[in-house]
Fold this sequence. Notes:
Helices cover 25% and strands 25% of the residues. The protein is built from 5 helices and 15 strands. It has helices at 2-22, 58-71, 88-97, 142-151, 191-195; strands at 29-30, 37-38, 41-43, 46-50, 80-84, 100-105, 113-114, 127-132, 153-160, 171-172, 184-185, 200-205, 217-219, 234-235, 238-243. The strands form 4 sheets. It has a 7-stranded mixed beta sheet.
Amino acid sequence: MWRSLNLELALKRLRAPWFRWMHPRQERFVCPICNYAGPFKEKAGRQHAKCPACGALERARLQFVVLERLLADFAPERKRVLHIAPEPPVRRYLRRRFGSYESGDLHRTDVDHRLDVQRLPFGDARFDLVYASHVLEYPRDDRLAIREVRRVLRTGGVAVLPVPVMRERTVDLAQRDPVSRLMHEPGLDYFERMEEHFRCVDIVRSEQVDARHQPFVRCRAGTVSMPVMYREGVFVDMVPVCYA
């Protein structure tokens, strides 16, 4: 599995210079994950979305910068991390940085643990960092999932738990959406659910990150339906950093 993933990454990196050469007039950015510098690819109607070298999307680049800042004084090489629903670019980074790395997912087989975030199969205070991106909108009882994340964190630990902000106010669905599979459509108020269980929740927004990394979701009119918009064509993402 790891050999095939490494081969895929190597092929992407070989193709990236060609993509840069083929788009000489396109706006240029810098991927903070792999350090590629050049134009980014379009993805599902989103402009400048995907790094052609490592495949990282807007939210992964934003979250990576947040993680780098967080870990600067964290001494991760002596600590334990749980990565739920791991994205390949961030997984590679966390595996290199932490002394102990464990991954988990409800359905995937390329992880260390098959797990339900509502019932984490770990004892109390096991991890120093829990990272779960775009996970909490899926479980039926997301408040229980947040409580479980806090339970497995040591005092002084940190959870990074981004969700897609889709509305002004959060909507909890009575039944799972048959298309998106969501049980919750998070709003700007969603982070209050995290504040119920954590000592402090800091919110890092896209505009607080170097624009060279292109951490915004940039959409052509009518291509993406996301009600929470801060200026024409550009959606601001948010990353909650929760301190236990």
